[in-house]
Amino acid sequence: MESILPTTSFSSSSKSERRSKSKSSQTSKPSLVMALISCFAWLYVAGRLWQDAEYRMVLGSLLKKNSEQRPKMLTVEDKLMVLGCKDLERRIVEVEMELTVAKSQGYLKNQLKQSGSSSGKQLLAVIGIYTGFGGRLRRNVIRGSWLPNVDALSKLEERGVVVRFVIGRSPNRGDSLDRNVNEENLATKDFLILESHEEAQEELPKKAKYFFSSAIQNWDAEFYVKVDDNIDVDLDGLIELLQKRRGQNSSYIGCMKSGEVVAEEGRAWYEPEWWKFGDEKSYFRHAAGSVLMLSKNLAQYININSASLKSYAHEDTSIGSWMMGLQTTYIDDSRLCCSTSGQGKQQSVLIGLNRKDVILSRLARTTIPFVFIGAYHNSKMETSCFIPRYH
């Protein structure tokens, strides 16, 4: 009995230990599960709270934008300000329209240098005689006929008329051509040199822009006249013509013509942009020939808008195209038409002066060396014309 009792007590104690261990393991599992569940629940709640905070921020920004875009109640002062702005805007539009009209008519304040005369009196006319580097002989003949000498030029300017030979610069600036013109100008003082213009036959339409711009910047006159150097002019008759036209604004004076646009390359008077003149291929009305006159505001218009004015192959049609969009008064004067035939518009006793013996006598009165007489004898000057005096 005594040997069995200890064995029994030991086994009973081990059983009780196993029971306690099993009970503790059974109680720890549910607590672990509950801890996990509570952790997940905490993460879920935290995420929802974070998401709700973002939603609240987005909604707040939207509400702020809507409140800013919501129309406000205007006070009387605000309404008066709005009406004032509208009235100011209307006046600005009206002023812009008036400025456009003024530009189209050639008016611009402070555009002139007002250097027409020392007394400040407006001149009657500025006459520009187109010439080139090879035209010294023609210039000397003109000086020996209708163009006054240096002393007479100053007296003519006192009467309100400025006359200058108009020439550009050589493509090779400063070469012998430029030097010869400078030397001739020092002796005669009758040149208007266009420093920005390159003298060439194909550049004649651009020369018109430079001439009218330069003339109006240097002299304030009522008229600006372009004359070719292959004609002879009755200067007194021309002055009388202009005096009778005084006060006539927007005047475009010349021998008005229109005609066929030459579309065949290689023919005389070929127009590369012939397709712009329509199916009929006919030029618009323009002052053709060797003389044309523009009143001050039209010359101002060319000066102001020279950068944007389109030039065609020929000078007279180019100027005619510039006049088309303006309120221009076209004055067709047959006495400004040059003709070498008996059927020409111009019929005058002065035509008879265009004879070789008269030309030679004029050359003899000039300072040109006689070696040039033969060259002039065969020049195009023999087909020049005259502007007759008014009767």
Automatic annotation (TrEMBL):
GO cellular component terms? Golgi membrane
Q: What is the protein named?
A: Hexosyltransferase
PANTHER family listed in its UniProt record: BETA-1,3-N-ACETYLGLUCOSAMINYLTRANSFERASE (PTHR11214), HYDROXYPROLINE O-GALACTOSYLTRANSFERASE HPGT3 (PTHR11214:SF124)
Tell me, what is an example of a GO biological process annotation in this record? arabinogalactan protein metabolic process
Q: Its annotated pathway?
A: Protein modification; protein glycosylation
Top class in the EC scheme: transferase
Sum up the protein's function in the record's words: Possesses hydroxyproline O-galactosyltransferase activity. Transfers galactose from UDP-galactose to hydroxyproline residues in the arabinogalactan proteins (AGPs). Is specific for AGPs containing non-contiguous peptidyl hydroxyproline residues. The addition of galactose onto the peptidyl hydroxyproline residues in AGP core proteins represents the first committed step in arabinogalactan polysaccharide addition. AGP glycans play essential roles in both vegetative and reproductive plant growth.
> Where is it localised?
Golgi apparatus membrane
GO function terms (MF aspect): hydroxyproline O-galactosyltransferase activity
Q: Which organism is it from?
A: Nicotiana sylvestris (Wood tobacco)
* Topology within the bilayer: Single-pass type II membrane protein
Q: Source organism lineage?
A: Eukaryota, Viridiplantae, Streptophyta, Embryophyta, Tracheophyta
Q: Which domain of life is it from?
A: Eukaryota
* Coiled-coil positions: none
Query: Which keywords are on file for this protein?
Result: Glycosyltransferase, Golgi apparatus, Manganese, Membrane, Signal-anchor, Transferase, Transmembrane, Transmembrane helix
**What Pfam families does UniProt report for this protein, alphabetically?**
DUF4094 (PF13334), Galactosyl_T (PF01762)
Q: What is its EC number?
A: 2.4.1.-
Q: What InterPro entries would the database entry show? A: DUF4094, Glyco_trans_31
- Report the family membership: Belongs to the glycosyltransferase 31 family.
